[in-house]
Amino acid sequence: MSYAEFNPVVKKVNLKADGKKEIVLEIGDSGLDGKLDTLAKMIGCTVQCAIESQVVSFNITLNAQTNEPVTTYKVDNKGIVSEVELEAEQLEANLGLPKEKVKTVEEKQEIELSVVDEFISSGLAPQFETEFAYDIPQVIKRKNDGETYMKIANELNISSGTIVELVDQYRAKAAPLAEKWKEWKDSQEEQIETPAEAKKEAKEGGLKPSASEEVSEEKIEESDDNTENGAA
């Protein structure tokens, strides 16, 4: 059985006159190294193909006047992401006032799938129980561990199309939190690296006397010379 795995870009989906569909994929220069012969053998054959986008698209809501996100997030020292309660909203809640209606616009953004799935695999992503009837983070982990959507869907007694749709919806919901978590994670790694680099530089610097130390040694030598000349 011939097999080839690669990461193409979907360029076109053409609807042909005979009702057939033509999908055009584009692969970079080295994307098919050592695989062209295998693909050539598949020409004219029926193949099984599963395509999954490597980016997650999601929408954020912006204040139409300030162009700032309506919802912002913060991360605690354990990596748990939570929504920031704006001061105005908190004051309205405390006073029992109706929430002010702000004109908003939607903006589409994208984030790498690997970042979202890493956030989910960390165990820090929320399940959104009120919006999803199934444990979607667990579904994603099982899929990334090699199980098929078909197998998981059969266990949950739903269609594979439904499980894929739920996974897409969950990833889009978790994406803005994953983005904030990734920023926090990167900053934590930088803080760990910086002291180590400073310690290394200090250690290396200790092998060579500083300029001030060299000047002090020169003054001591001059003083010793003057003392000897006076004694003479």
Automatic annotation (TrEMBL):
Residues 214-232 have a biased composition (Acidic residues). Residues 182-232 are annotated as: Disordered. This is 2-methylcitrate dehydratase. Residues 196-206 have a biased composition (Basic and acidic residues).
